[in-house]
């Protein structure tokens, strides 16, 4: 297989059900489009269903829309119930939706917006859908992280919701680090079951709406440099799609753009920060996430 893994390398997806969060725009839209083009039944799980329907109309294939607001545990539970009713089996769960560099805000449940949306919302959704995946050969949970997991990133257990002080960049770093820690801990818990795997991906620096909250001091330089330092959403989505479909992928791997700095390029296997592999922190984050969301996973604990 060529080193330049492209959309043409996606295996046939006929008979597979894929749920993509945040699929009405940007990376999520391109991920959904590619999977549908290869025959998957794709669900656009989105907060704004009107925008979701507009996006679905632009995709060729078997595509439906599901209301899902990751800032509300009530919405996540309702959306998961709808998905479970509609799909006895789920092959792919793509945890793609996210927010970046937002001013300090909270979700409906009082969580800091970036941590609540990017991590806790996807943690809850995965836990509520996982039993539809465990018996499905080749099923995968793919969670989208970011190179931002290296920037001022730590899990601040003493102030997870940034109530004492707030840095939008550090809060984003915490959320994206949590995405990776969730993936690695989920894979460890899935391994004894031998069917479903957990994988992570990141898009490099992609030209999407996600960057709309970039701090003012960075906005002008980013605008000037964007043509040199970013790639389009279709290229940015390729690491996620490779993580979801490449038969060579194994659980616990992490895919991103292959060029220097992982800013752009064709998707390759990449590495995450040493902090992301701290098992004690992963396990503590898992326990805290269960407590905050009230969602437990249908997995037996194993001795590690």
From TrEMBL:
InterPro entries: NAD(P)-bd_dom_sf, SDR_fam. The keyword Heme does not apply. It comes from the Bacteria. Keywords: Oxidoreductase. One of its GO terms (molecular function) is oxidoreductase activity. The keyword tRNA-binding does not apply. Pfam families: adh_short. Belongs to the short-chain dehydrogenases/reductases (SDR) family. This is NAD(P)-dependent dehydrogenase, short-chain alcohol dehydrogenase family. It comes from Actinoplanes derwentensis.
């Amino acid at each position: 297989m060529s080193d330049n893994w492209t959309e043409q390398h996606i295996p046939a997806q006929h008979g597979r059900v894929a749920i993509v969060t945040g699929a009405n725009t940007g990376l999520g839209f391109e991920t959904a489009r590619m999977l549908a083009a290869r025959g998957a039944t794709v669900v656009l799980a989105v907060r704004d269903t009107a925008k979701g329907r507009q996006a679905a109309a632009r995709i060729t294939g078997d595509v439906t829309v599901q209301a899902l607001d990751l800032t509300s545990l009530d919405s996540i539970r309702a959306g998961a119930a709808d998905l479970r009713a509609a799909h006895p089996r789920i092959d792919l769960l793509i945890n793609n939706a996210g927010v970046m560099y937002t001013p300090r805000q909270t979700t409906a449940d009082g969580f800091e917006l970036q941590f609540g949306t990017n991590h806790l919302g996807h943690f809850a959704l995965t836990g509520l859908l996982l039993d539809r995946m465990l018996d499905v050969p080749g099923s995968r949970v793919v969670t989208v992280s970011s190179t931002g997991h290296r920037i001022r990133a730590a899990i601040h257990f003493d102030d997870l919701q940034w109530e004492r002080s707030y840095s939008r960049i550090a809060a984003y770093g915490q959320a994206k680090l949590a995405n990776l820690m969730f993936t690695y801990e989920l894979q460890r818990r899935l391994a004894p079951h031998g069917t479903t795997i957990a994988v992570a991906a990141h898009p490099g620096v992609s030209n999407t709406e996600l960057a709309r909250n970039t701090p003012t001091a960075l906005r002008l330089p980013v605008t000037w440099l964007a043509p040199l330092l970013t790639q389009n959403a279709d290229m940015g989505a390729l690491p996620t799609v490779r993580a979801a479909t490449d038969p060579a992928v194994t659980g616990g791997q992490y895919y991103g753009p292959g060029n220097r700095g992982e800013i752009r390029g064709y998707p390759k296997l990449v590495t995450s920060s040493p902090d992301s592999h701290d098992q004690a922190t992963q396990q503590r984050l898992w326990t805290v996430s269960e407590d905050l969301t009230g969602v437990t996973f249908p997995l037996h604990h194993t001795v590690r």
